[in-house]
Amino acid sequence: VQLQASGGGLVQAGGSLRLSCAASGRTFSNYAVAWFRQSPGKERVFVAGISWGAFWSTTTKYLDSVKGRFTVSSDNAKNTVYLQMNSLKPEDTAIYYCAAEVGGTIATMSEKSVNYWGQGTQVTVSS
After folding, report:
1. pLDDT at site 92
2. pLDDT of residue 17
């Protein structure tokens, strides 16, 4: 599967951006899909993710520092996962990567369990 991330950009603090992760070749029904981010000089960390259960029920998970500000969602018809980012802060500045784990659940997904990575998209939040 190929993952195509888009939607990054430059925004002022307090602003919003929506990232998209589009998958080609497969549907997300058997995957966990997550967003990770990496800031300069720091390790890549999990930000938010989603996985699907019976009848397309969803489970989501968030980094504590983005809870209440970021929302992960999906459009299964488009094989696309979104990350809506509101109330952005300068510390959210990073390269954001989407990633997928085959047969995984978001509860246990980690950088080590990722099977597929998309290219990064830069998010810059100015103060």
Report:
1. 98
2. 98
